[in-house]
Amino acid sequence: MMTVQSRPLPMRPRVRPGGLLPILAILGVLLVLVAVRQPDFFAPPSLMSFLGRSAPIILLAAGQYFVIVSGEFDLSIGSLVTAQAVIAARLIDGEPARTWPVVLLLLGCGALVGLVNGLITTRLRVPSFITTLGMFLILVGAVYYWSDGAPKGALSEEFRRFGRRAVEDVPLLGRIPYALLVLLALGALAVLVARSDFGRTLVAVGDNPRTAELSGVRVWRHRTIAFVLSGVAAAVAAILLGGYSGVSFQAGAGLEFAAITAVVLGGVALGGGRGSVAGAMLGALTLELLLALMNFYGVSGALRSTVQGAIILLAVALSASRSPSR
Amino acid sequence: MAALAAVTLLSLAACATDEPAASPSGSPTASAAGTGEQSKFFVRADYEAELALLDAAPTGPADKPWEQALNPTMVETAKFKRRGPHKLCFSNAALNNPWRQVGFKTMQAEVEAQRSRIREFVHVDAEGKDQKQIADINDLLGKGCDALVVSPNTTATLTPAVEAACKAGLPVVVFDRGVNTSCPVTFINPIGGYGFGHVGAEFVSQRMKRGGKLLALRILPGVDVLETRWSAAKVAFDKANVDVVGVEFTDGDPAKTKKIVNDYLQRYGTIDGVWMDAGAVAVAAVEAFQDAGRPVPPINGEDQLDFLRIWKQAGLTAIAPTYPTYQWRTPIIAALRILDGQPVANPWKLPQPTITQENLDRYLDPDLPPLHYAMCGCTDLPGYPRRWK
Amino acid sequence: MSAQSLLPARWPVPGVFVALVLTVAIGGLVVAVDGGQLFHQATVVSLLHVAAGLGLVAVGQTLVIVGGSLDLSVAYLISLSTLVAAETMNGSDGAVLPAVGLALTVSAGVGLLNGLLVTRFRINAFIATLGVGLLLKGYLDNGYDGPAGVTAPTLVRTLGYQRIGPVPLSFLLLVAVTAAAWFTLARTRFGHHLVAVGGDPEVARLSGVRNDRVLVTAHVLCSLCAGLAGIYLASRLGAGAPRVGTEGLYDLESIAAVVLGGTALAGGRGGVAGTVGGVLLLASIDAIFNQLEVDAFFKQVIRGAVIIAAVAVYARRALRRGRS
Q1: Read out DSSP for C109-137?
Q2: Domains delineated in chain B
């Protein structure tokens, strides 16, 4: 493992530079490739809509960052997104008046699932991989069971607005998707949280829980809060994603792996203790850009996973070789 | 080490096997032909036979399409005749999508409608796993079923298990996907594969701009019925000189679908037609055009109500070939006929009804949820519409 | 802790066997009340077949997890192995040996890749094996549009369907592989080193263990086990199937079985006997619910809860033992 810090924690936790360079470099290369092939991608309306549709995965990555940097995993977020989209459709059932109550309920549900994940992991000492894998099975099973295997009801237009519509007629930019506004607000909030005492302590917890414990940090409480943040991020992602594309059982499929990949691409170490939330969000943006790039270049549908896998391995290997500490 | 002891003990017991007598269980038609035209699933003879079936007149009651058969050849079933009421067993590939859910509810309703003749109905769900379905079928053989209905998860890989069931002596009815053996009493399915792909592709290519750009949206690679749909569509597009600019897999994920359509719109400026191998994400594709402020080009979907509703509401140029869920009624009817000793059609090809602009209103059932499949043939069954809600 | 982990992996009979006996007893009773029969021969044979497939993968997974690593690529590798085996045989009995050899060689190659990515390139095992899984997925998606190849009839007859009493040959294969893995882990130098690396890589390095080599070997062994599972599935299915591994959820289920069997996910502690117990427990739950015709989705909820609860119990025991 890493050399143990003798400095007292968390009074003056190390501020790591974040290691944003590799992810910025990769993002830069992809942007150049896009520019070569599809220059009009950078026209404001298309760029805005791209950022809007990428908002859910970026927020999931931000939530996942807090969990991963504290030394844990959250594999339940994909199933949480699916469950929430299905629940929202069934509860709203096309009634506009139910939109806001359901939105609040979803945020509450997200926090609750995060809390349960956190408490089982920290208090019952079940490795988070298992806790959240179990939660994944439970959520998927329960939501299928509850809805007899096919989503029912419908989302109201008011609910879908967040993920699908935009503020129109903005000077210069044309239109700004609501999802992008949500992303900007919550992204900024995530950066603030990560830079707060809580955020720094969380990194210290992930770096060396024992040292953190000895210096008076309540490790379990910090980690549990990290899971709650991840759950809330999943709730917001579910609202945006449900809005973007409507309700389906595929809404959240595979998002947990996508978010973890994004976080790692962004230079955050699995196992905790190193990385920045900005890196995690940039990682998610890079992943989304990669998918768009494959659409622009017309990479054969069946070969895409190979391209994606190779690029991920390459990028992570490169950034791993740049960090001498592990 | 108890295990080792058990092994020695067991090796004293007689050897036994569940494998069917060495019958040639190779994969015949599919891999043999290999026209190389697009995939090894394209077999020109099958393609032509299926297209011919599209125009064939069905035999059977006109108001009960689930009892109709196209160009049937009847097989004798006298040796399976038994006194009822019967115990029917059903090995189901999965219940993991709305199509299978609607179908299974329809089947349950059919069983209820035939309550006087069915003493017990056993259902086992293989959860989409070949390995589990093989075990399930083997397991059902020990349960005293009078007839076995199988909806295989995969064509080639379930063949040995189905052969073992045939060998056990009970009548086997296979539906939806087939198996590579002729041992079941009958195999029931609608035209579905080439026919489905052809009808959608022909409509789209006729309605779209000549020489225009078409985007093909597919669910997954490697699913045989979807492969045959695409290979038939490809023939139609080649014939009509359609420029197929992309063939993309959506994983049935509406968000991914919208992103793909969006990026293709950006890349080519315009998309003049959309073809889909299954209707699951048709609404997402339509929405992608709407959100981009573009007219929705000619498109095909399936008989899911959400698509039919957006079709009506947005006045789309659309068509919906169907792979009707009412085919889930037919195996129960067939099994009971077989147990009566009546001849049944084998293969039992059901017609493939198509929803068009003209008959669209007939299928817009306002009572049922958006992901319901309209072609369920379930309005006369017990529990309608509550059961399907 | 680290001193202990240099000792052979002796581990008291994991609670999973207690759970297994209880589950089977209670399940059998409930099924009997329901009018069914859990111990019907056909049911037992089915159960053991399902256990054999998952078990082969899970035993391999145990080795990497004990070493502090993880393999998420097994599901795709299994599919690949069924295809390599079935296509090479192409229905001819004469080609069984080359086919098995080729499938295992390919598997070992994938394991080597996994191992090198984890050790030489220092990529976290989670991402490394996820990435390799994606590489394989692309190959499978691109190259196959459905089942392909034909497994040799002899292999179908023997490994696929032959049984002795109620015990399928494939389950005996699992028993043999488990015994070999147990021996490797508990009685060989490599095994001791693997446990040491999983327990504390730094201490292991300082005491002269060549961590990288040990981990690469573990990954190769894990992939060989997955390859073997693929060969078994090819004989069971009679063909190669490009989706069989992912549809069977062999990646996550194998990890669940390992953890149910009492192996610590963090590495350094555990064994293959417990894993087989975990596999049998999962298969028994399956069989019982099958008999009771419980909804598959509800079953998934139960599975999730069982996995979490079981590991919570282990954690409690470990904690108590640690304190005493």
Answers
A1: HHHHHHHHHHHTS---HHHHHHHHHHHHH
A2: 72-189+324-346 (3.40.50.2300), 194-321 (3.40.50.2300)
Q: Chains with 3 or more CB pairs closer than 8 angstroms to C?
A: A, B
Residue among A130, A142, A301 minimizing CB distance to C311: A130
**For every one of its 324 residues, what pLDDT tens digit does chain C have, with 9 covering 90 and above?**
343 433 344 445 567 888 889 888 998 898 888 877 777 888 899 899 999 999 999 999 999 999 999 999 999 999 999 999 999 999 999 999 999 999 999 999 999 999 999 999 989 999 999 999 999 999 998 888 788 899 999 999 899 889 998 899 999 999 999 999 999 999 999 999 999 999 999 999 999 999 999 999 999 999 999 999 999 999 999 999 998 999 888 999 999 999 999 898 888 888 999 999 999 999 998 888 888 888 888 989 998 998 899 889 888 887 777 665
| Residue A122 near residue A81, CB atoms below 8 Å | no
Pairwise CA distance, residues A278 & A286, whole Å: 12
Q: Tell me how far CA of residue A39 lies from CA of A35, A42, A321, B267, C171, in angstroms.
A: 4, 6, 33, 10, 59
User: Is 50 exceeded by the pLDDT of residue A324?
Assistant: no
**Contact partners of A by the rule of 3+ C-beta pairs under 8 A?**
B, C
In this structure, are residues B177 and B226 in contact, taking their beta carbons and an 8 Å threshold?
A: no
Q: How far apart are alpha carbons A326 and A322 in whole angstroms?
A: 10
Beta bridge partners of B150: B91, B174
Residues of chain A in contact with residue C121, where contact means CB-CB under 8 angstroms, are 317, 320-321
Q: Is the pLDDT of residue A326 over 60?
A: no
Query: What is the four-CA torsion angle of C224, C227, C232, C237, rounded to 10 degrees?
Result: 170
B→A contacts (Cβ < 8 Å), by residue, are 95-98, 100-102, 218, 221, 245-249, 251-255, 257-260, 262-264, 266-267, 280, 283-284, 287, 291, 369-372, 389
Q: Can you tell me which residue has the tokens 């953190």?
A: A212
Q: What ipTM does the predicted assembly reach?
A: 0.89
Find the length of chain C.
Answer: 324
Distance between CA A127 and CA C284 in Å, rounded?
24
Which candidate in C71, C119, C127 is best for mutational testing of the A interface (most A CBs within 10 A)?
A: C127
Express each pLDDT in B349-360 by its tens digit.
999 999 999 999
Inter-chain residue contact A130 with C303, CB threshold 8 Å:
no
Write down the pLDDT at residue C46.
87
Best to test chain B binding among A33, A248, A290, A296 (most B CBs inside 10 Å): A248
Gyration radius from chain C CA atoms:
19
Could you count the other beta carbons within 10 Å of the beta carbon of residue A33? Answer: 15
Give CATH for domain A21-322.
1.10.3470
What is the rounded average pLDDT for all residues in chain B? Answer: 87
Considering only CA atoms, which of A307, A252, A319, A313 is closest in space to residue A79? A252
Q: Looking at chain A, which runs of residues are DSSP E strands?
A: 166-170, 174-177
Best B253, B258, B260 member to test A by mutation, with max A CBs in 10 Å, is: B253
